[in-house]
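Exercise 7. Given the encoded structure of a 169-residue chain, write a plausible sequence.
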């Protein structure tokens, strides 16, 4: 079995949609990815393909941090989905590592993610509140951040906002 992690290509859209429907309780995340793509807000869309079948997806979109009249720009990893039959086999980990690698090359200075408490610290994330950051909707225990370049979080504190497409979730 060979796992290929690559950027989304034209034609992948229906399979990405179906995967998100399968991985989440409702189709809200699938529609979110479609909306981000349609609005040109996907900074990165990574797919994991196992023996020719799309089994994983990670979306990245811009976030902003506002404090004291200054605005900083970063990237948010969300949503991420792995096909139910293939979860807990390291596919999510590969998507995160490849996503972080690509984002370090692209240049946003920091990355945030909302998710399982035990999971993201394995990939270099720290609780965002320890860096003076909070998600606009709370859930501080599940909100994580990491710098993507040296000093990438210097002076970045305040409220983190995702794209307006996330408001529909
Ligand atoms: C979260 C998700 C993307 C992880 O992908 P994955 O390929 O299963 O992840 P990995 O195999 O790299 O890592 C597995 C780890 O993820 C964590 N994890 C996965 N699903 C979890 C769940 N439902 N609850 C708690 N932790 C979970 C665990 O820490 C697990 O480690 P363990 O098996 O040692 O306990 C996948 O489980 C999924 O699609 N879940 C449904 C959609 C979702 O919740 N997405 C995240 C929010 S955007």
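Solution.
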């Amino acid at each position: 079995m060979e796992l290929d992690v690559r950027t989304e290509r034209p034609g992948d859209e229906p399979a990405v949609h179906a995967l998100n429907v399968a991985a989440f309780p409702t189709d809200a995340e699938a529609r979110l990815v479609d909306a981000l793509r349609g609005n040109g807000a996907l900074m990165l869309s990574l797919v994991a393909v196992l023996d020719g079948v799309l089994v994983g997806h990670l979306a990245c979109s811009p976030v902003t941090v506002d404090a004291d009249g200054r605005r900083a720009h970063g990237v948010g990893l969300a949503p991420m989905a792995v096909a139910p039959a293939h979860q807990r086999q390291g596919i999510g980990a590969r998507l995160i590592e490849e996503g972080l690698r690509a984002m370090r090359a692209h240049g946003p200075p920091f990355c945030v993610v909302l998710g399982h408490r035990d999971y993201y610290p394995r990939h270099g994330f720290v609780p965002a509140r320890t860096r003076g950051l909070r998600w606009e909707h709370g859930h501080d225990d599940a909100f994580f951040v990491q710098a993507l370049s040296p000093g990438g979080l210097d002076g970045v504190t305040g409220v983190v906002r995702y794209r307006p497409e996330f408001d529909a979730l």
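Remark. The helical segments are 13-23, 28-38, 91-106. Students should compare their own answers with the one above.
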